[in-house]
Design brief:
Length: about 350
């Protein structure tokens, strides 16, 4: 049976021939030390083969974003619905960003696109709104223990409780008028629609794995005031790759935070929340992205809004990337961040 190696396979006969060649390249060792030396040489050969194949597999790992959920697109085999989800593949990591508005539709689109959620490394949920979280229900049926990075919000949807000192206490009251009879638990646990999920709260910029960051922002807009939202940022050789959910903290604030990772932004995916903005603001945001922050490319979706789609397409021209549901957008190659040693 071939040995699995990333997306490639190594047949045992190939491995046997490689080891045989290593054993017969001119060594003529007599005496009882010969076996030990041959074993040492064979071990070194295995290490070299492993490292070479790791390099080949890493080189062949796709760097791309696949849009799994949105309300516009070209593919008749996919279901359009209000919400957002994307699969991000970069540097050998597979990251699910958001899960859409309807678990059944999310499941359909994931299967239609041939995505295996059992093999993702972690999940990022941008914020608590249903059009980004509802697919968690399906996700947990196929990958119940996957780490899910979520905003750090007490009493939100993600089982984040609080210490009992969040309320003032009055010992003069009788026990039947006091919370928990005057003896509260140290942590007041919060409920969640997804008990048992492996939620990981994030409240500051966190480098989850080398070169891949999650950072948090807070909305200051009426209607979503104090809503926390996470952004995924990947540092590539060409600049930062940004994936946002709705940009409730404001796309300008998100871009400002991203420039702390790298001053150059290569591409921005996701919703910019301009669906009801008047034309002057729509035009201003397009100029901010193109002229002030000088994004190389933009791939807007979800709540960006049709007028903003048009303004961004005018501003970016050929650097505007269509990103409807089912779209697969290639990303720049990942930099090699690890070096290997054969122990010499």
């Amino acid at each position: 049976m071939p040995l699995a190696w990333g997306k490639r396979s190594l047949h045992p006969e190939t491995l046997r021939l490689g080891l045989h060649q290593t054993r017969t390249t001119g060594y003529n060792i007599q005496g009882e030390g010969r076996g030990a030396v041959n074993r040492h040489i064979s071990l070194r050969a295995v290490v070299v083969i492993v490292l070479l194949l790791w390099g080949v597999a890493a080189a062949e790992t796709p760097n791309r974003v696949t849009i799994l959920y949105d309300s516009f697109g070209k593919s008749p085999s996919l279901t359009m619905d209000w919400g957002f989800a994307a699969l991000v593949e970069y540097g050998g990591k597979r990251i699910l960003f958001d899960t859409g508005n309807n678990a059944r539709i999310f499941e359909h689109n994931v299967k239609a696109l041939g995505v295996d959620l059992r093999n993702i490394d972690f999940v990022v949920i941008s914020h608590r709104h249903a059009d980004h979280t509802s697919g968690i229900t399906y996700l947990l049926t196929v990958n119940p223990k996957v780490p899910i990075y979520v905003p750090d919000e007490p009493w939100g949807l993600f089982a984040r409780g609080v210490k009992n000192d969040f309320y003032r206490k009055d010992p003069s009251l009788p026990a039947d008028m006091r919370y928990y009879g005057g003896h509260p638990p140290e942590i007041l646990e919060a409920g969640t629609p997804w008990p048992g999920a492996n939620f990981v709260p994030v409240n500051e910029r966190t480098e989850v794995t080398p070169g891949i960051f999650i950072f948090s922002g807070v909305s200051t807009s009426p209607g979503t005031l104090e809503l926390k939202e996470l952004t995924l940022a990947i540092k590539s050789p060409q600049g930062v790759i940004l994936i946002v959910g709705c940009s409730h903290p404001g796309v300008e604030q998100i871009l400002h935070e991203a420039t702390a990772i790298d001053p150059h932004i290569d591409i921005l995916f996701g919703g910019l929340h301009q669906i009801q903005k008047p034309d002057p603001e729509v035009k201003r945001i397009a100029a901010v992205l193109h002229d002030q922050y000088k994004l190389e490319r933009v791939a807007p979706g979800h709540c960006t809004g049709e007028p903003e789609f048009a303004a961004l397409r005018r501003a970016f021209g050929n650097h505007y990337v269509y990103a409807g549901v089912g779209s697969v957008i290639d990303l720049p190659a990942a930099a090699v961040t690890r070096t290997a040693s054969t122990g010499q």
